[in-house]
Design goal:
By secondary structure, the protein is an alpha/beta fold. Helix content is 45%, strand content 12%. The protein has 15 helices and 11 strands. A hairpin with a 2-residue loop joins strand 10 and strand 11. Helix 7 packs antiparallel against helix 8 and helix 12 crosses helix 15. The protein is globular, with a radius of gyration of 22 Å. It comes from Marinobacter similis.
Length: 326
Amino acid sequence: MHSVAVIGFDGALASAITGIIDLFRLAGVTWARIHGEPPEPLFRTRLLTENGDPCRCINGITLLADGSWNDGELSPADIIIVPTIGAPIIDVLTHNRQLVGWLSQQDSAPKLLASNCTGAFLLAEAGLLNGREATTHWGFSNQFRQRYPGVICRPEKLVTVDGDIACAGGGMAWWDLGVYLVERYAGPDASRQLAKAFVIDAGRTSQAPYSALQAKRYHADATVLQLQDWLDSHFTQTIALSELAHQAGLSERSLLRRFKAATGDTPNTYLQLLRVEHARHHLETSRRPIDEIINTVGYEDVSSFSRLFRKHTGLAPGAYRSRFGR
């Protein structure tokens, strides 16, 4: 059987630990039981903490550990998984310097390292993601980019795989990460059976339908923040770059540089995102006709906006309303 080590620490998200353990423990088991066949477990799992002590998760649940990741006599794992950070991220990084140091030594061994959601901060803090493609929760992606500029952050992706490191996006993306890892180690049949047994949508690839524009405001450039406030009230208008530069009191070149550094986007892309975000809100909360909503956010060409909407959310406006409409 393949061996999986899930790393436990105080402030972790309990479901990201227990859920991924359930998936691995029941791969080859639940499907067999459903069909009256002898179960064949495919993975062995261990929850490891610094000293083998229990870890207290963010929801107050305390989980018993199977051992210590610091125990050099433990047999090595094929897969090491860092779960979601549920507590304040910087606090967890500060209080787990020994774990960060231990993780930094794991890239030399023949194993796969994986993180879920904000667990990617621990891998990045250990220097394991420099020059690699990675994902994390969309809501913390700007913080991640600012702290780890050497990482190729792809928050629109639900799962990234770069060599022997895999990262999953949002908090419940351990489903997708687990299904991927089962396929990688046990084959596509085992993966499909697991997804069917757990009723998991194995076709998800993007966090885009869930992301919010608020993440673009996680920066300290007061001038850009003021311009974002102004755009909130004028996004339905046709706005030239020269007008934006005038509003900000900057040259066009300086505006482009500072806006990109602060938000990760150009002003024009941000304006498009504003329109998409407002369209999303209308699609979620009203039954207004789609073409009317598109006109409301400043577009006249329905097909052009539909393409833009799909680009940023992964769904056409009608499909988005079907999934998220109230």
